[in-house]
Amino acid sequence: MIKGTVTNKDSFLNHVAKSLGRPRTSTRIEKPVWKYSPQQEVFKGYSQDELVKVLKLQGERIHTDVIETLVKDLPRALENVVMGYGGDSVVTWADPRFEEFGLTMLLNEGLPSKQVDVHVWDTELGDKNTEIAERANVGITFSDTTLAESGTVVLFNGKGKGRAVSLLPATYIAIIPKSTIVPRMTQVAEKVHRDNQNGEQVASCVNFISGPSNSADIEMNLIVGVHGPIKATYIIVNDK
Amino acid sequence: MKVSLFVTCLIDMFQSDVGRDTVELLEHLGCEVDFPEGQTCCGQPAYNSGYLKESMESMKHMINVFQDSEYVVTPSGSCGTMFHEYPNIFAGDAEWEPKAIELANKTYELTQFIVEVLKVEDVGASLPARATYHTSCHMTRLLGVKEAPLTLLKNVKGLEFTELPDKHNCCGFGGTFSVKMSQISEHMVDEKVRHVESTKADILVGADAGCLMNIGGRISRTGKPIEVMHIATVLNSRK
Amino acid sequence: MGMKIGTAAFKERVDQGLSDSFMRGAVSAAQGRLRDGRLNAAEELGNWEDWRSHGEEIRKHTLEHLDYYLEMLVDNVSKRGGHVFFAQTAEEANEYITNVVKKKGAKKIVKSKSMVTEEISMNEALEKIGCDVVESDLGEWILQVDDHDPPSHIVAPALHKNKEQIRDVFRDKLGYKNSEKPEELALFAREQLREEFLAAEVGITGCNFAIADSGTVTLVTNEGNARMATTLPKTQITVMGMERIVPSWEEMEVLVSLLTRAAVGQKLTSYITALTGPKGEGDVDGPEEFHLVVVDNGRSKILGTEFQEALHCIRCAACINVCPVYRHVGGHSYGSIYPGPIGAVLSPLLGGYDDYKELPYASTLCAACTEACPVKIPLHELLIKHRQKIVEKEGKAPVFESLSMKAFRMGTASPTMYNIGSKLAPKMMKPFVKEDKIANGPGPLKNWTSIRDFPAPSNERFRDWFKNREKEESKS
Predict the structure, then answer these.
(1) Per-domain residue ranges for chain A?
(2) Fewer beta carbons within 10 Å, N or C terminal of chain B?
(3) ipTM over 0.90
């Protein structure tokens, strides 16, 4: 990666330091040991099953259907949701988990046999992917990490995992392996922080998605579906 | 128990009957009440208007006046809050900060004193009426006294209590705000009066003379049949 | 439009606000819902006060070491291939942004909601060089279509408009033919804006929190417009006020949790997007070029002063949503894109007392704002500090007030003077008293009695009663 340019850094930061009434900081500053850490208390000690319950309850509050299924029933469940959203056209990530979870048949044959176009994100095709996603009826991705408290799927985008798949289609389906569920955002943030400290680069785009897009800008009435998907379904798979 | 009364300038000059009720109530509960005569004003009007120097002189004066008191009790959440602000205002002042802390630590709003120090929840009052209660801002938010007045009111015999809708909203007094921004204040107090009316209460009870003067003044001007009463008066009623 | 909106004097703006009954109905209903939402979200956590204290300690630490964390941030952004420009002034920021846009030959720009770009009048600068700048937040877009009506709230900018007004704006300006149902209005906006997103060459965003140790910018939205603006255009420019930064992901997470709860009572908004540099190698979508513009524009003047805590603000609008003054006068009365309590603190700091000296007085100091703030900014205390400044340093307080405060000092610091004054009061007031009240008071009382009665001074002061009683008791 070519380094970007930085302009006016020293004059600006010297001025900031001067305003703070001291010379510019030149040594490493350690974060203090915080006096409070309430985020650690949320759903502390909850089992995976208890977290599933929390997630389902939150799904209702964010206008998202939440379905629970076994791995062997996943193809059927996914097909039902796709067809329930009107079929037509689907775009998915290029993600080995589709195969691991036995969905290859459905995507390659099952859905096409029902006149549903399936496009798998293909880096070779470049911007064509975005055009297809923009016209697609359904976007499908796996969840990389799932937050029970807020009903959030966390997507680490990049390469085969296009940003547009969860954004441009009219509807969105997230497949949530049960093992990816954690209590809240705290656990993801800690993981990214650790990785970052170990020199591992964070993905260029991390999306925290909680249900369909919405707005309350007109008379504070909640309207579901503004720029992003209008409907969303989570399918929890009992993978472990 | 020996109690020094900080009566507040508003009550001293405009509502002396509330001061009398406070004294009688405290005596009824077994306190020995004294009134340090040098007391004037807590300094809040000047302090809140940005006149720090002017206000600090009256604060120092008040610190001296109550120096020997064991407990300082005041029938005003807002003025009591001001005493509790003194330590912040004199922070870093070697002479006055410790004195300010001492005063703050022994100062209580009347209902707070009754419930927290005297450990009394029923003062034996009776008043057959329908009432609602205005939670004044400084008392609830800054002094943190929320439950004490309600606890005491609920044990007044014959008093039927209805909660005031949107009780968290300020009545529009705000000291000099009420005259400086009178057009805004008018709309605020009108909304408050509408809410009071909606409870169908005969009596509006409050624990701050300033708020009561504002709401009461508007009720009087618009001719509503609602009586405005300080909580000390309610708690000293034996009807 | 800059921070200042309109040219009318404070009193005229307030009169206009007070007479706008639709706006006031909309604001009080919204306040009710937003306040309940925040309280429920807080209650659900059980330990909200600990959360607030944690938010406060994070903001305090970060601001105290702002130069350090900004340096860390921009080094990391640059490592990831992003370009950074530090702008001391609005002009410098706009010059850089317009240059980037010119270099790209861009004509169409989509923007997701950002207060700092409003503050620096970025849209006007871009329009001057012939660009079409499209706001994509639904509320902001409505205002833009309505000939740049100013925002009245920092989270819900079109709060002052009702759905019928919005329908008429769409009909008159864009040929909209459907009803005033919010769903239909939003669908229309979706279709119109989708075209704009697809056509835009540059996406411009604000920044909720920049993360120093990874070089990430975090965007918080419900609509997904910030995602659109950072997924489709080939160039992304993010503009941030220099204080909008946290040390690491761990603190970002806490502040986002506080922000979404305090703003709208949500655990998280529909979309939180964390972007680090331009798109990665092998990525298909996302910007090829990423620019971060860090803006001072008066903020450094606040650092190191008694107002530094004002920079802790995370722009959630919780203080606005509980303010009883905002409730009645609405956002436009403040004459600033930053209304409500935080606006009354911030606007005079960024824009000076000449334009904003009334704002610190547009508060009853009821402290509802201080109680609501998720990072514990003592807003009402900062308003008092403004008043002190105005009195002591600026000499801008009315002469009458300063005279009466001198009298206050004489009357309250000395018991003798107090005694004389309070004793005289009933006699002096006597001519004005009718039926135990004063309905038409003299001097400063006039503003009081123009709307309410004033009590007549008690015939016997409390202190006289007490003294007499003691005498009687000692006799018996």
Answers:
(1) 46-238
(2) C
(3) yes
